[in-house]
Amino acid sequence: MFSRQVKQFLKRSSSTLWPYLQRNYGAPSRQAKVTNDFVSSLKSIVGDKNVSTADAVREQHGHDESHHEIGLPDVVVFAESVQHVSEVSKLCNDNVVSLIPFGSGTGLEGGVNALEGGVCLDVTKMDEIIEVNAEDFDCTVRPGVMRIGLNNYLRDTGLFFPIDPGADASVCGMCATSASGTNAVRYGTMRENVLNLEVVLPDGRVIDTAGKGRRTKKTSAGYNLTNLFVGSEGTLGTITKATVRLYGVPEKTISAVCHFNSVQEAVDTVVQVLQCGIPMAKLEFLDDVAIEAFNKFSKFDMTVAQSLFLEFHGPALGLEDQFNTVKELIDMNNGFGLKTAIEADERNKLWKARHEMVWACCSLIPGSKPYSTDVCVPISHLPDVIVKTKEMIKEANVIGPIVGHVGDGNFHVFFPVDHADTETFKKVYDISHRMALLAMDRNGTCTGEHGIGMGKRDLLIRELGEEGVEAMRQVKKTFDPNGIMNPGKVFC
Ligand SMILES: Cc1cc2c(cc1C)N(C[C@H](O)[C@H](O)[C@H](O)COP(=O)(O)OP(=O)(O)OC[C@H]1O[C@@H](n3cnc4c(N)ncnc43)[C@H](O)[C@@H]1O)c1[nH]c(=O)[nH]c(=O)c1N2
Ligand SMILES: CC(=O)C(=O)O
Ligand SMILES: [Mn+2]
C-alpha cells in the first residue's frame, strides 16, 4: 500500500520511531537563564501581579490539550498591552531566554509546552474587540478575544466569524496554528480569512504585516507577510492584533445526517456534491466507531454506520433545491436514514456534539485521554487513505474512531489512550506516523489544521524536504536570530 520510497523509510524507521518519541520528551538542550534578577525585571515591566512562578500557574501553562508531555515554563507573564509584550520580548531577547506565546492552550500538537523552560507569555488579558466594520465584513481583535465571545459580540450585526475549531480558541492562537474546522469547506481556513496582523518581533519591534490599518480583501503589495505569520506557531513573534473577515449570517440553515455501508460510498457522495457546485457549509464524516462514541457521550441514538453530517447555508430561496440535489446523490450512492435538523436548537445540539468528538472518543475507554491525529489529502485519495487507516487500526487491535472534515480531504483519528499503557501508546504513535507517511505518499500533508508543534517535526522534513525546511529555518533566523521564540517547535 505504500510506495517503494515510503516502504524503505518505514523499514529504516520502525525501530527508531520510539526513540523519536523519547527525543521529543528529552531533556532541555539549553539551560534556561531565568534568574531572580530576570524575574524582577519582568515585574518592573508588567507589575508584580502579572508575573507568576507558582507551580500551579506554570503547570496550567505548560501543556495544551494534546497527548504531549508537559513542558514547564520557569515563569508565566500576563501581558496587558502591546508595550508589555514588546518590552518583555526585548528583555528575553537581550538575555537569550525562551519566550512562548500562550493563547488559550487548546492546541493539539504541544505548541505551548515549554521544551526549554523560559517565559510563557499569556496574552489573554488583552481581550479588546477593537473595531467591527460591518459594511466591510471585517473586525479587528486583540489576542485575548475568543472565537465564541467574538460571535456573541457580533450577534446583533447579522455577521459571524465562521472558523470553528471544536474548542473555544483565541482568534490569534487560531492565526498562529492556521486553524480551521467544520466550516472550512465553504469559508476557508485562517489562511484565507486573515487580512492583517500586528506582530511583536522578538527584539520588541512592532510590525503590521499588511501595513498599519490596512484591511483590504486583496493586495499585491510585496511579500505576503500576513500568511508568513499565519501558521508560524509562535516561532517568529507574538501576534497582538488580528484583522479577520466576517460573513453574513445565512438567511436559512439546514443540517442533515445520513449513513452509508462503506467509506467509498460516503466519500463518492461528497465528491459528487462538490462537483455539482453546491456551496456546502459543512461536509463532515464520522465512521461507525466514531458514531458509537458520539451516541454514548452525547446521548444520541444514531445508526452506527459510516456517516455524513452536512450543513447548507443560504437564502431560503433555492436552499431546498440544493438539499434535494444532495438527497438524490445520497440515494444514488446507497445512502440511507437521511434526517434533517432545521430548528436552531436541534442544529446546535448536533454540532456541539460533533465539536466535542475528541472527548466523546474517550468515553470508549474509561480513564483514557485523547491522542489525536490530523492528515489531509487530495479528496480523490481520501477513501483509500481512510480505508487503509482503518486496516492499520484493526491490525494493531486498538480503538480508533475516525472523524473528518471530509469536504476538505482532512481527517483525524481520536485514539482514546490510557497514557500509563505504554504498549498501546506506542502502537498509536506508530499508526499516527504511518498515517502521515501514507497521506504524504498520496500528495497530502502530515497536518491539515493542527500544526507541527513538537509532535510532527520529523514529518515536516519528509513533507518539505531538507531544502524546504532549511529555507524555513533561514526565515526564522531573520526574524529571530537568537532563537528565543518557542524553541523546539516546528523544527527539529
Ligand atoms: C476539542 C477540540 C477540538 C478542536 C481543537 C482542539 C480541541 C481541544 N483544535 C485545536 C485548537 O483549538 C487550535 O489549534 C487553536 O487554533 C489553538 O488556539 P489557542 O488559542 O488555544 O492556542 P494555544 O494557546 O494552544 O497555542 C497554539 C500555538 O500558537 C501559539 N500562539 C498562541 N497564541 C499566539 C499569539 N497571540 N501569537 C503568537 N503565537 C501564538 C502558541 O505558542 C502555540 O505554538 C482544532 N483545530 C483546528 O484547526 N480544527 C479543529 O477542528 C479543531 N478542533
Ligand atoms: C479536534 C478536531 O480537529 C476536530 O474535532 O475536528
Ligand atoms: Mn478538525
UniProtKB/TrEMBL annotation:
UniProt keyword Transit peptide present: yes
Superkingdom of the organism of origin: Eukaryota
InterPro entries xrefs: FAD-bd_oxidored_4_C, FAD-bd_PCMH, FAD-bd_PCMH-like_sf, FAD-bd_PCMH_sub2, FAD-linked_Oxase-like_C, Oxid_FAD_bind_N, Vanillyl_alc_oxidase_C-sub2
Residue stretches in coiled coil: none
Location in or out of the cell: Mitochondrion
EC number annotated for this UniProt entry: 1.1.2.4
Gene transcribed to yield this protein: LOC101863614
Needed co-factor(s): FAD
Name of this protein: D-lactate dehydrogenase (cytochrome)
Protein keywords: FAD, Flavoprotein, Mitochondrion, Oxidoreductase, Transit peptide
Top EC class of this enzyme: oxidoreductase
Organism: Aplysia californica
Family under the similarity heading: Belongs to the FAD-binding oxidoreductase/transferase type 4 family.
Pfam families reported for this sequence: FAD-oxidase_C, FAD_binding_4
Signal peptide start-end: none
Entry keyword annotation includes Mitochondrion: yes
Location of the FAD-binding PCMH-type domain: 69-249
